[in-house]
Amino acid sequence: QPRRRQRPIMSLATPQDILDFWFGSDRSLLNEVSHIKHLFGVWFFRTNPAVETTFIAEAAQIDKLSDASSLGEEWFTAEGILARVVMLDQGTRTAFRGTPKAFAYDDIAKELVLDIIQKGWFFDKYLPVERQILCLPLLHSEDIHAHRVASELVHRLSEGTENPELVQMFKSNVSFLAEHTQVVEKFGRYPSRNSALGRTNTPEEEEYLAS
């Protein structure tokens, strides 16, 4: 019997749709270690067919969110910008995997995060787990200056929380996040993207990719 195709979880038409899809609809759980560990598993360590299908189905929405001039005011609030970052940094890597377009909106996502920092919103408006997602466009950038900004922020992700378990969890994530920077420091770019972007590997990159 043929396997039934996974359907998209939901439509991602509004900022709230995207945040509910990515973080869960109960925001109070975003300070719960067990819920955050579950999210990390879905985001970073396990392939989730429903999440993949949803992002693929929303490819046109991702394209739309890359053009700020076409967006309503709801996309410029703290929630709206976070939702755009999720789509332009995480959604792209799923919807356009293996193609140059997977990285096409990285600079837009990076600039959104730098704007958040400039506004003073990074610590005032977002919870630790949301801050981690906001750090990713900086770490996904091949601009080492963005990594320098991220390296200061990742040590402060849990700032403002008094839950020692939460503090320890984000502290333990620092080395995982720093691995991104080490690659860019060494090669000046991400060798893993070379194939999708039509770039030629250097001998050092060939050795790295084969290891």
What about the largest sheet?
none
Strand content: under 5%
Give the name of the CATH architecture. Alpha Horseshoe
Please give the share of residues in helix.
55-70%
Instruction: Please tell me the total number of domains.
Output: 1
Q: What is the fold named in CATH at topology level? A: Serine Threonine Protein Phosphatase 5, Tetratricopeptide repeat
Mean pLDDT across all amino acids:
92
Characterise this structure.
Helix content is about 65%, strand content about 0%. The longest helix is centred in the middle third of the chain and has 18 residues, at about 80-95. By secondary structure, the chain is mostly helical. The model is unreliable at about 1-5 (pLDDT under 50). The N and C termini lie far apart (about 40 Å). It is globular. This is DUF924 domain-containing protein. It comes from Spumella elongata. InterPro entries: DUF924, TPR-like_helical_dom_sf. Pfam families: DUF924.
Give a brief outline of the structure.
This is DUF924 domain-containing protein. With 211 residues, the chain is an all-alpha fold.
Identify the notable features of this structure and list them briefly.
single chain; about 210 residues; mainly alpha; Serine Threonine Protein Phosphatase 5, Tetratricopeptide repeat; disordered N terminus
Secondary structure layout:
Blueprint: H1 15-23, H2 33-45, H3 49-57, H4 59-65, H5 78-95, H6 106-119, H7 121-124, H8 128-140, H9 144-154, H10 164-172, H11 174-187, H12 194-197, H13 203-210
Helix pairs in contact: 1-5, 3-5, 4-5, 5-6, 5-8, 6-8, 8-9, 9-11
